[in-house]
Design a protein that fits this description.
The protein has helices at residues 12-22, 36-50, 65-74, 102-123, 155-177, 195-199, 208-220, 241-244, 246-256; strands at residues 2-7, 27-33, 55-59, 81-84, 128-133, 182-188, 231-233, 236-238. With 258 residues, it is an alpha/beta fold. The protein has one domain: NAD(P)-binding Rossmann-like Domain (Rossmann fold, 3-Layer(aba) Sandwich), CATH 3.40.50. It has an 8-stranded mixed β-sheet with strand order 3-2-1-4-5-6-7-8, sandwiched between helices. Strand 2 (27-33), helix 2 (36-50) and strand 3 form a beta-alpha-beta unit. Helix 5 crosses helix 9 (246-256). The longest helix has 23 residues, at 155-177.
Length: 258
C-alpha cells in the first residue's frame, strides 16, 4: 500500500485533495492539522466519502520545527506523495511559538521543513512526488524583510510573497531531489470560497473538488510521471519567472536552510 500525507487537510481544498487521493484504494492517506476536533471530523468524512478505511490523522503544528520533527521521527513508512497545502493569512501580524511571523512560519517554513524532514521517507518510495500548493496570487517577496519586522504588516502582501516562495522552493528541491526519483512541482489549486480566501478579502467561484483537481492530478496522474520543477494551473504547465530565477531560488533556499 502507498502512503500520502496532506497538510492543511481539514480546510476546504485540503479535505478535497485528501478525498481525491483516498479514492484510490491502494493509498493510505494521513491528514495533517493542528486542531484535534477538526482533524477527527475530517478523517471521518474523508474515510466515509471514499469508503477507504486507511485514512488517519496526525496532530502537527506546522509553524513549529519541533512538532514537524516529532512527526517525521515517528513516521516509519515510505512516503509516496507529500502534498504541502496548509496555509494561513491572519489579518494581524502574529508570531509562531518560535517567534516567526505566522504566514512565513506556516506557508513557507512549514512547506520547507516538511519536505526536508520527510526526504528520507520519500527516498524509500522509489518514485515519490511532492506537490506544493502555491497560487497564481504570488509576488513581491522581500528577501531582506520576509517577516515584516521593518515594514508594516499586510496579510495580502504576506500571502503573495509566501506563494512566490512556495514556487521558488519547488524549483530548489526539484534540483536537489531529482537524483532520488522524487519529483517536486507547484500549482495553483483553484478559486474556492474558504476561510483563507475570506481572510484575504476574496470569495471564490469554484467548488472544493474543482479547486483540488490540479493538486490531485499532480499527485496521482501518469501524465506527469517524472515531471519536476514545474508550475501548473488547471493542469497546464505554465512558465514561472520566479522558478526560473536561479539566483533568487538559491538565495531563498539559503535563507530557509539556516
Amino acid at each position: 500500500m502507498k502512503t500520502a500525507i496532506v497538510t492543511g487537510a481539514y480546510g476546504a481544498i485540503g479535505k478535497a485533495i485528501a478525498e481525491g487521493i483516498a479514492i484510490e484504494k491502494d493509498f493510505r492517506v494521513v491528514l495533517v492539522g493542528r486542531g484535534q476536533q477538526q482533524l477527527t471530523d475530517a478523517v471521518r468524512v474523508v474515510s466515509s466519502r471514499t469508503n477507504n478505511p486507511n485514512v488517519e490523522g496526525a496532530l502537527v503544528d506546522l509553524s513549529s520545527l519541533a512538532s514537524i520533527r516529532a512527526f517525521a521521527d515517528t513516521f516509519l513508512d515510505p512516503l509516496h506523495v507529500l502534498v504541502n497545502n496548509a496555509a494561513t493569512a491572519p489579518r494581524q501580524r502574529l508570531l509562531s511559538v518560535e517567534g516567526i511571523e505566522m504566514q512565513w512560519a506556516v506557508n513557507v517554513m512549514g512547506y520547507f521543513r516538511m519536505t526536508q524532514l520527510f526526504t528520507p521517507h520519500l527516498m524509500k518510495a522509489n518514485g515519490a512526488r511532492v506537490v506544493n500548493v502555491a497560487s497564481y496570487w504570488a509576488g513581491g517577496l522581500d528577501f531582506n524583510d520576509p517577516e515584516f519586522k521593518r515594514r508594516p504588516y499586510n496579510n495580502d502582501v504576506a500571502y503573495r510573497q509566501s506563494k512566490q516562495a512556495n514556487r521558488m522552493m519547488s524549483a530548489a528541491f526539484s534540483e536537489r531531489l531529482m537524483g532520488f526519483q522524487i519529483t517536486v512541482n507547484a500549482c495553483h489549486p483553484g478559486d474556492v470560497n474558504s476561510k483563507l480566501s475570506n481572510s484575504l478579502g476574496f470569495g471564490g467561484h469554484e467548488n472544493p473538488v474543482q479547486g483540488a483537481e490540479t493538486p490531485v492530478w499532480l499527485a496521482l496522474s501518469r501524465e506527469v510521471e517524472g515531471v519536476t520543477g514545474k508550475y501548473f494551473e488547471h493542469r497546464n504547465d505554465l512558465p514561472c519567472a520566479f522558478m526560473n530565477d536561479s539566483e533568487g531560488v538559491l538565495r531563498l533556499y539559503s535563507i530557509l536552510n539556516r
